[in-house]
Amino acid sequence: MLFxxxxxxxxxxxxxxxxxxxxxxxxxxxxxxxAVIVSPDFFLPEVDDSKRISAVLRxxxxxxxxxxxxxxxxxIVDHEMIDRINILNATxxxxxxxxxxxxxxxxxxxxxxxxxxGRTIPFQLIVGGDGCSFSVAAASIIAKVTRDQIxxxxxxxxxxxxxARHKGYGTPGHLRAILRLGLSPIHRRSFRHGTGREGRM
Length: 201
What we know:
The chain is an alpha/beta fold. The protein contains 7 helices and 5 strands. 40% of the residues lie in helices and 15% in strands. The two termini are 23 Å apart.
């Protein structure tokens, strides 16, 4: 899990930020990205792709990463901007906001996925990075837990949609709620609703 980080550390790059996002696929709510910089002496063996670990473990690791990482940055782009600039550009924007919010300026970025619009900091794309890079996996946990917390708050603001249960993804129950109640203020108008498409939770 530290192969990519060690390669850069050994080349003299001290501050390597792993980047990942949560919330590209949902029908409602924001997209959230996180950037995490770790030191060579910080490692949590249970850190993995956030989708492969339980919600309880994610919450535990969330606190441990915030406490032990060199730096953590979070970027949030709401549903209105997603509709305005599209989800791909909104994801890039959330990632840039996460990097910009880091209290330490990274020298290199490890970005999960196969697409990214960089600025001035050199970066490497890693498909499946949240399963093979410690800092990217840590970022995936920070992003996922942060977004889940946001959606639980929305559940209280917009009862009936069960946002706390499905986090805005297109589950059958969520689609039935849309048919019954219509779209809430946080639904993404640019997404197709009622198609039966399910996102990954």
